[in-house]
Design a protein that fits this description.
The structure is a single chain. With 179 residues, this protein is an alpha/beta fold. It has a domain of 124 residues: 3-Layer(aba) Sandwich (Rossmann fold). It contains seven helices and five strands; from the N terminus they run βαβαβαβαβααα. A five-stranded parallel beta sheet has the order 3-2-1-4-5, with helices on both faces.
């Protein structure tokens, strides 16, 4: 039995994340999707909300070999706790490799854990949580960029935090439209 860990902040989970998780589930007998808590980041969604969004997005497809949890601290400690021998990271063409390679080398030194890099689906490699939040903030269409269950909570959270700008964009566009 080979256990893989797919860590990330997942704030929010995107279609790119789900694609990687689904592909990894066909390669390993058990996959732990781990919302990694980073005290240096200020996420839009709570740890519990992110875990639940991932579970909801995956439950529709019924992946019994996938466990979704969260952890704080070193991902290598989590890997040791669950008996994982590999960390899987999805890579986009935006420089992810440079950043992820350093982490992979540290993880191998700290926990004797290997990292497998899985290239993003070319149709989804432009998607990131940051891009999704920015597009949604201005009322852009994020369908296809995130699982459907994410759209409502994302828009609601942006409005709740005063980050919603779509109304301002609409007003500006209306005021510049010739009469």
């Amino acid at each position: 039995m080979t256990i893989a860990v797919c860590p990330g902040s997942f704030d929010p989970v995107t279609s790119g994340h789900i694609d990687v998780i689904e592909r990894v589930s066909h390669l390993f007998s058990h996959v732990h999707v781990v919302v990694a808590i980073n005290s240096l980041k200020r996420p839009l969604f709570s740890e519990k909300e992110r875990v639940q969004m991932i579970r909801d997005a995956l439950n529709a497809d019924g992946y019994s070999q996938i466990i979704v949890e969260s952890t704080e601290g070193l991902i290598t400690d989590y890997c040791k706790k669950v008996g994982a021998s590999v960390i899987v990271k999805g890579l986009r063409q935006n420089g992810d490799y440079d950043m992820e390679l350093g982490q992979a080398l540290v993880n191998r030194k700290l926990g004797d854990i290997e990292t497998l890099f899985l290239p993003a689906d070319p149709m989804k490699e432009h998607i990131s949580s940051t891009v999704v939040k920015d597009v949604a903030r201005y009322g852009g269409d994020i369908s296809g960029m995130v699982p459907t269950i994410v759209i409502g909570p994302l828009v609601a959270r942006l409005k709740e935090r005063g980050l919603w700008r779509a109304d301002h964009t609409q007003q500006r566009n209306n005021s510049t439209t010739p009469q």
